[in-house]
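Running co-folding for (2R)-2,3-dihydroxypropanoic acid.
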Amino acid sequence: MTRPRILVARAIAPATLDRLARHFDLTPNADDAVWSREEFAARLQDQDGVLTTGSERIDGALLAACPRLRICANMAVGFNNFDTDAMSAHGVQGTNTPGVLTETTADFGFALLMATARRVTESEQFLRSGAWQRWRHDQFCGTDIHGSTLGIVGMGRIGQGIARRGAHGFGMRVVYHNRSRLDAATEAECKAAWLPLDELLATADHVVLVVPYSAASHHLIDAAALAKMKPTATLVNIARGGIVEDAALAEALRERRIAAAGLDVFEGEPTVHPGLLAVPNVVLTPHIASATHVTRQAMADLAADNLIAFFEGKGPLTPVNRPLAAPEKIAAQRTADR
Ligand code: DGY
């Protein structure tokens, strides 16, 4: 019996590759090579499925060029690299990895918030440069976390994890903005109160962005939004590049219109806006919020589980779209068309 052909778009944990190889005719990207879009499409053409990492764009043009494709399993909770409408129209299933990275990512959101508000990396660079001569009463004074107001934009699983850390661990007052309000029990557990976005921006001492990227959240934090924040405020983005207008943020940081920012994601990453690299009051990390050994393994495992369940006919575990026609039907149609 021929086995489904699966392309793994990037290097992933060897244990997961071994497991996938027991089920599929597997093509890994062992060297973690960077493929152009054309090269990716060429490699994908004769594949039944692909394991992506969030960096590979799956859209209508690619799907039209890869008629055999039936499933794209993203090793990420965010799936803004998928055009889910186009995937549904082409009968291609998409999946993501929710749940397994919630607490790890919430930990990192807090780490970035602490590092930013307390100027950890800026002061470390000062020390490493040999500039530290003596203690000073005002040296690297930052902003308190405990007892301050934490504003969370996007109150899904990760937002709730950050809220719990802030409210229960640091005695913060937590306010949040989300399209829909949480139920009363979850609000009580997170000790969080809903606010309109403008009010949240004007009230919070620390604003953390955890909202998914979409057309609606593109440049949600632009110059006008930044102008609403307190001059003493901290902004943290662990969601996606493009939610913050990086040029406007660099300008606001340079002019000290807000105190500081902590960024794990960037517009056009891995390129970082030069204005952000030029200012000291920003902590910059390379999209590592979910990066612990255990969690990255769990993400790879869940992406693999989705592929295995799908091809065993059990249905995907964590789907992100509903293909318009049954994949089997579309696959059969494609075979007939060839
Ligand atoms: C996610 O899961 O969406 C992360 O950004 C990838 O590490």
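Result summary
The chain is about 40% helix and 15% strand.
The pocket of (2R)-2,3-dihydroxypropanoic acid is lined by residues 54, 76-78, 101, 290 (CB under 6 Å).
Job closed.
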